[in-house]
Amino acid sequence: MSRTALEKIADREHAVTTTAEQVSAQIHTLAERLRELEAELADLQVARKVILALGDDEPAGPRLPDNPVYQHILTALNDGTAPMRAKELCHALDLGFEPTKIEGMRSKLKRLVATGLVTEDEPGLFTLPRPRSGD
Predict the structure, then answer these.
(1) Angstrom distance (rounded) from CA 40 to CA 60
(2) Domain at 69-127, CATH class
């Protein structure tokens, strides 16, 4: 027996109604999540205003560049017993001895010197800064 057009329409209507209810529930869930995120964003904006109004209590220390190789360099310098040259650091970090690697290392060391994280007491010799006496 073949289904009538009205039965097909009723089936389709039921399917569309079910889908519409599911989409409506998803919209409700997303709207609630959006309200939560907007409330958190407002809280963060208030926190930023309060912190800016209070000002910095402590000066920020030197900021480490984002590249993780800088942390490896600082670790190698910390583990060393004496100031190190760029070539020695390349060896310590297993980077190779190609001139481009050594020059890249020297460039990174100079950046660390500029941030105050490393010192160059003698040309080409890099070490971590010594703690100042009296601090």
Answers:
(1) 26
(2) mainly alpha
Alpha carbon distance 90, 113 (integer Å): 17
Query: In this structure, what is the dihedral angle of CA atoms 88, 92, 97, 98, given to the nearest 10 degrees?
Result: -110
Measured CA to CA, the distance from residue 4 to residue 13 in angstroms comes to: 14
Going from N- to C-terminal start, the domains of the chain cover 1-58, 69-127
The 10s digit of each residue's pLDDT in 40-53 is 999 999 888 888 88
Give the 3-state secondary structure of residue 11: helix
Whose structure tokens read 């939560």?
36
* Tens of pLDDT, residues 56-104: 665 666 667 777 888 899 989 988 888 999 999 999 899 888 999 999 9
- φ, ψ (nearest 5 deg) of residue 6: -65, -35
Mean pLDDT of 13-30: 97
- How far the first Cα of the chain sits from its last, in Å, is 95
